[in-house]
Please model this.
Amino acid sequence: MLLVQLGGSFRSLWHVLVAGFLGLFVSLFDAFSASWMLDLGMLLYWSSCVVCVRFSQFYLV
Model:
């Protein structure tokens, strides 16, 4: 049981890291564009983090 929870924690951490790197890449790419594109990149970053946290909760259950 503990190993399953530990595996789920690593999986959720991996998803959060992937979402963070994707969001950071999008934000840096949009930094060279207009300001509304930067806002869109930050919105995508935070929404992807929220989605990954939601999915990680399903994995842990």
Q: What stands out?
A: Residues 7-60 form one domain. The two ends are 12 Å apart (CA to CA). The chain has a mean pLDDT of 69. The chain has one domain: 7-60.
